[in-house]
């Protein structure tokens, strides 16, 4: 145990944060429990083609290992040993990564954060852990803000969030009639606020104000997205509550706000720590690839990002009747072709959004089509990533299975589903 009061305080805060992170993991998995199994009709799309033949018991095996790892973390926090705690955090992170690989849908943003935090807890000494977790938190705000710096956000999701804010304000109904140009300027305050919080949290002298700003940001989001506003699903609200808890532990206290002698820096850096830092650095730099349409949106912290590529599936009215009865409510429109809203389907089954990447959405759409008769009539549209400044997209329309097969060649990762033989009654 260190004799430095600041480092003792950091150790206590990190133990609290580990308990909170484990609670976040447990609560979110419980709420979205069907997502982590296979007892549903939503397509299971592995990240890599080698896993398309993975059996149904894979989830049970990985899930059981994850539960054991969580129990081990609790035991470690209660005094069973530092090595046990570190090993179990690494085990939990690996189990989550395997779950992502078995089905891309599970790569929810909160789960990705738990993986990175678990790697920190497993591989770094306490003071380094606190520093890297601060860096991760700042990166989330920064990349989230950058994902909103585009015309599409200002015109779509930004306006939705703005309406939620208007609903909370006295006389907000009057603000709803502001000219579009002013509404876009107001929507621009969302990324500006995130950038401001990220900048203030970077420096010791302004960190307190950044912490206050982050609390106001998340409390505002909870009010806007909660039952008083847009009434979003519980996992979104729980994740925002977690940030209130996490930021208070990371960005307050003597180690966060005052210069502290680097007692731990006198210790030699182990190979484990070097590998951990290299892994975390790659994860922190990965979001830059999304700016060039290479990386996925959610691991790049594209929260409420609107410019990503889109896929929509439209079924001819006669073809739509082939869908099971429990999918009929997710058909929209009453014309010759009806849009199948797979995002609403995901929320209904899992209380979680569908993975937004166009690769995954294309795979889900083609899997659904393959469950229908070969004569099924459909139209699948793909809209490219929007230009950040103009909002322009390139639209491709596909109406035959041959066109689908040709279009699929542009995606590098897997598009094929798992366990389709279990689907009956279509």
TrEMBL record:
Domain of life: Bacteria
The UniProt record lists the keyword Membrane: yes
Methylamine utilisation protein MauE domain mapped to chain residues: 130-224
Keywords: Membrane, Transmembrane, Transmembrane helix
Classification via Pfam families: MauE
GO biological process terms, semicolon-separated: methylamine metabolic process
Keyword Transmembrane in annotation: yes
Membrane topology: Multi-pass membrane protein
Annotated TM spans: 21-40, 60-80, 131-149, 184-203, 208-230
Annotated compartments: Membrane
Name of this chain's protein: Methylamine utilisation protein MauE domain-containing protein
Organism: Rubinisphaera brasiliensis (strain ATCC 49424 / DSM 5305 / JCM 21570 / IAM 15109 / NBRC 103401 / IFAM 1448)
Phylogenetic lineage: Bacteria, Pseudomonadati, Planctomycetota, Planctomycetia, Planctomycetales
């Amino acid at each position: 145990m260190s004799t430095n009061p600041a480092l003792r305080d950091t150790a206590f805060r990190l133990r609290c944060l580990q308990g909170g992170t484990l609670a976040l993991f447990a609560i979110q998995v419980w709420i979205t429990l069907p997502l982590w199994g296979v007892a549903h009709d939503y397509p299971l799309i592995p990240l890599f083609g080698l896993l398309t033949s993975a059996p149904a018991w894979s989830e049970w095996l990985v899930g059981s290992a994850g539960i054991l790892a969580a129990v081990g973390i609790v035991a470690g926090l209660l005094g069973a040993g530092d090595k046990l705690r570190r090993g179990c955090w690494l085990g939990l992170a690996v189990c989550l990564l395997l779950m992502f690989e078995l089905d891309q849908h599970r790569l929810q943003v909160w789960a990705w954060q738990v993986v990175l935090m678990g790697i920190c807890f497993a591989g770094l000494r306490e003071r380094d852990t606190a520093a890297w977790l601060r860096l991760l938190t700042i990166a989330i705000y920064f990349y989230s803000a950058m994902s909103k710096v585009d015309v599409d956000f200002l015109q779509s999701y930004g306006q939705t969030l703005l309406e939620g804010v208007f609903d909370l304000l006295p006389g907000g109904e009057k603000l709803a009639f502001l000219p579009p140009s002013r509404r876009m300027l107001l929507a621009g305050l969302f990324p500006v606020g995130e950038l401001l919080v990220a900048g203030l949290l970077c420096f010791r002298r302004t960190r307190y104000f950044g912490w206050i700003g982050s609390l106001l940001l998340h409390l505002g989001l909870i009010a806007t997205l909660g039952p008083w506003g847009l009434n979003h699903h519980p996992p979104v609200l729980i994740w925002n509550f977690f940030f209130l808890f996490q930021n208070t532990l990371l960005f307050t206290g003597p180690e966060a706000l005052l210069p502290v002698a680097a007692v731990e820096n006198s210790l030699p850096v182990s190979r484990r720590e070097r590998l951990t830092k290299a892994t975390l650095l790659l994860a922190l730099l990965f979001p830059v690839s999304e700016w060039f349409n290479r990386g996925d949106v959610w691991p790049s912290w594209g929260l409420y990002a609107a410019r990503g590529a889109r896929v929509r599936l439209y079924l001819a009215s006669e073809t739509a009747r082939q869908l099971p009865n429990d999918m009929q409510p997710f058909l929209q429109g009453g014309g010759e072709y009806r849009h199948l809203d797979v995002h609403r389907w995901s929320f209904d089954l899992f209380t979680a959004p569908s993975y937004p990447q166009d690769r995954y959405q294309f795979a889900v759409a083609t899997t659904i089509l393959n469950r229908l008769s070969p004569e099924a009539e459909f139209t699948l549209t793909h809209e490219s990533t929007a230009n950040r400044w103009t909002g322009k997209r390139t639209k491709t329309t596909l109406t035959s299975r041959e066109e689908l097969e040709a279009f699929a060649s542009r995606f590098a990762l897997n598009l094929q589903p798992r366990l389709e033989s279990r689907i009956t009654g279509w």
